[in-house]
Amino acid sequence: MQNKQSLITNLSKTVQHNCHVADASHAGDYTLCIYLLKMRELYRWENNKPFSTILPNAVVGKWLKQREKLWNDLEGSEYLDIDISNKTLSPFESDSINDTLHEHQLVYSGGMGINNRPHFFLADLNLHEQHNDYSLYVAGKEYARDMSAPPAMSHQNNIYIRKESFRRLLWEQLETWRWNKPDNALGRAFACYDCDNNLDAALAEMTDTEVKNVIEHERGEIQAGELLGEEWRTLLFTLPHSKAAIMLRAVRDHLADSLTTLPALLSLNSAPSWHFYFGNLNNMRKDLYPSLIKGYDEWIEAGSLSKMTEIVEHGKEHWLALCQEILKINEPDLKSQQSEIQNLIENNRL
Questions:
Q1: Average of pLDDT values for 133-142?
Q2: What angle is formed at CA 42 by the lines to CA 38 and CA 44, rounded to 5 degrees?
């Protein structure tokens, strides 16, 4: 059997190259503020700096220029195949690659994310669970990653949870919240942990707590995918970036959470997790589900989850029915299709 460290060294070079190629094509997808934040945290990861360490702007700036030059040189390059155990595999053949890596307690993923953006990573495997209809991989220390590094993904009936990336996401959210310290759900979530006195330990504790709910959401994504079928995926990838496409993703997310995440939160009844969940709802999801926000407000004021329980039960039926109605839309003209989808969703807020 190949030495694990040797395998990591060789494989991480290839995976990181593919991460660079993906970044070269998609780094411009972000606003300038988000881009700079993600790049600073990518620098922190590459240089193994604790979250409590203040990064020198001059050093990060020099590194940023070097990285952008590398991306310019790589733009348009092909992704490299993965050579492992005398096999040459496409970087998107995650299942076959993981079959080989499992004995080394490593996990790999190569898949497509939002807006057809490729994502790759290589990490230690902390946990692997095989269920009837999906596999769950929980990744620890990461050896190769792209600038975006989504903390959770599901594709090909596999769920990938990246604890290291999730901890970084928490740090980015905390830093953003600290700019103005608004009295909101996310701030209440961070207040449940000792972020001011022991930052790294607090983020680790928060990761261990909240990653369980991230897993529930990804399970819900798989269940929603089974209910909606290939037709929904085709619809989503057919639509260009638009308000209709954003609304479709929000509706699908509400369906997924109604199936798994929200029932799990009701069972757990953990204040930090309730705050964190609502702190991460984007504006579109809030706009489409005002009754859920009212349920959270009632829980804040009175400590009662009775309204929330009723809302969640109704939500399962509502969001599934809405998704099925969306799939019935049959407009040959793309603009007409987008307009009808948008109108249908706007008229079916819950």
A1: 89
A2: 115
